[in-house]
Each structure stands twice: as structure tokens, then as C-alpha cells.
Please model this.
Amino acid sequence: MIFNDNRKQAHMDICLEQDVERGNPGFDAYRLLPESLPEMTMSDALTETFFLGKRLRYPFMIASMSGGVGGEFKFNHRLARAAQKAGVALALGSLRPALEDAAYLQEYDVRHRAPDVPLLGNIAAWQLRELSVRNRLYELIDELQLDGIFVHVNVPQELIQPEGERNFDEVFHPLLAFIERCPVPVFLKAVGQGLNTAHLPRLIRAGLTGIDVAGAGGTDWVVVEALRNPTNQTLNIARDLSHLATSTADAIQDTRSQLKAIASDRGAVCVIGSGGIRTAHDMAIALGLGADLVAAALPILKAAYQSDDALDDLLAYYHNGLRHLMVACGARDLAQLRARVLAV
Ligand SMILES: Cc1cc2nc3c(=O)[nH]c(=O)nc-3n(C[C@H](O)[C@H](O)[C@H](O)COP(=O)(O)O)c2cc1C
Model:
């Protein structure tokens, strides 16, 4: 396999080969209430939903991972084929490599492989400070036929990364400008520590479409960076930073209550639940806690590196697992399933 972006290669290798999951996403504090006489058939369990005006077979998105890894493996192309087959959304990894070198663009050019599903780009908030980057992103959104874009915020990861960003000043206004001018919906996301920002009301007023909480309990990016540079100091600081993380279950509920308090007059804000989603049961609990859809990265990465069949099997399991849970709970649709989630 040929990789071109060394940092991305190291990240993917560490995620594939080492234990990068830490903490607990918090789903085990909840359960589904079963119904022994569900009065429905398997075909009554309807998992369909709409996201960015497109139909999803079930409320799932492949979370942002790759781009700029090049070579014959064509990771994003394989994810796109699988997303189209499964009828789920696909978020591409950071567009940074394509901004720096147009040769990487072909890695992100996957619309022909996934013509019917929502396809989203990704960029770090810090990079939006440059007007030329924002303008180039508007062009890329058009060229790659993206339906939306994630802006990720990952302060702890950047801090522990040897070559990471150290200046987080003067990001807010460029971010607002990007949200206001972007031709497609913009989503804000964390990368496994949970999203917490006092700036949410202003971002929502500017037109932010959604939030991916990317909470703690799944892939921990502080751990990934510490493993890439495992000195005593980085390992200790990684441990310190882990105390700041919010579990995915808490992050979904915190975000929902913050959104309620903001009482936006511009319609509903989408909440994506991710960070440690591993099973159909995790999906059901995350939906019940207030997520509109859920997303996962690490299990998808591992399955994709195994084979196309393994990836198709995993996505089929998420769908069928959800349907089985729905029948066992007497839930005909996602709204009824959400109502079956209880605190243990
Ligand atoms: C190999 C890999 C690469 C990732 N690259 C990105 C990225 O470029 N941009 C981003 O916002 N998140 C990135 N993430 C974070 C995921 O989108 C996700 O938020 C996080 O891994 C938590 O989900 P998980 O527990 O299901 O892995 C990456 C994750 C993995 C495993």
C-alpha cells in the first residue's frame, strides 16, 4: 500500500494497530424497554430518514477519516462505494492535503461512486482564518459536488501533536464568515472529546446547520497523538487532557439542552451522535438521547482495511441490528424507538 501524507499514514497505522479507544461513551447507563407483544412484523420496522434532502436507509454516517493517503488502496473510493450500497451518508476526511497539493484531489473525487447519498467535506477551523483557504473551499465544494462540510475543532489533539497548531486566536470571525458564505450547510464537530463551546448561539444565528458531538469513549485523538510521540511528558499531558473530555451520551444530551435554551428561530439544528458507536444498540441509545443520526469511524476503518465484503457486512449489521431491536421493542419507526430508551 502506498501512502503519500506521512502524518495521515501514521494516524491510520496507529488506529489500525494499537489500542486507541479510551473511556466509556456512556451508553451502558441506558437501556431499551422491550415489548413482548409487539403487534408488528419485521417489515413494519422503518429505519428510513432524510439528511440534507437525501434519503438514508437508516440514520448513519461514515465519519470523517481520510484524504491524502493516495496510492492504490483508494480508501475514500471504497468508502463511497459502500456508502452508496448501504444508503448511508459519507463524510470525507480533512481537505487540507488537497488544499496543499492538487494531486490529492482525486482521493476526494468520489461523487461518481456515491451519486445518491449525502457527501460531506471536512476542514479544521484554524485553517479558515485565511481568506484564500475559504475561497478555495467554496470552489472545492462545487468541484467535488459536496452536500455539506464539517469544520472540526480539536484543540487537545493539536496541542499534543508535535507539529500541531498552537495559535487558536482569531478563529471565531473567520468561522462565522465561512458559515455565512458557504454554499452548502456547515456542521461543527469535535474529534472524540465532545464539543463544548460558549459561542454556539452566535454560530447558530449565523446559520450553522448541525453539530457532531464526537464525544469521548471511542477513538481518542489525544491518545493517537501521544502514541505517535510517546515521551513521558506527552503521555502525562494526554492523561491530564483526558479529564476534559465529555462522554458521547452526555455530549448528546448537553448539546440538545443547549439547543433548547438557544431557541433558534431558524429551524431545527441537526445533532449527530458519534464517538464510540460500535453496535446497533449503541446507535439506538444515541438516537434515544437526542441524536438525529449517528456516525462512526474506527470500526469502519478496520472493516475497510479487511475487505469490501467486511465493510458491507458491518453496514448491513448496523441496519439489521437496528431493525431487530425495533421489533423487540415494538417500535415501528425511529420516533417510537427513541421513546423506548430509559436510564438504567
Ligand atoms: C483514521 C482516522 C482519521 C480521522 N481523520 C479525521 C479528519 O480528518 N477530520 C475529522 O474531523 N475527524 C477525523 N477523525 C475523527 C472521526 O471522524 C471521529 O470523530 C472519531 O474517530 C470518533 O469516532 P469513533 O470513536 O467512531 O472512531 C478520524 C478518525 C480516524 C479513526
Observations:
- The mean pLDDT is 94.
- Residues 11-12, 15, 63-65, 93-94, 122, 150, 152, 189, 191-192, 214, 218-219, 274-277, 296-298, 301 surround flavin mononucleotide (CB under 6 Å).
- The longest strand covers residues 119-124.
- Residues 6-343 form a domain with the TIM Barrel fold (CATH 3.20.20.70).
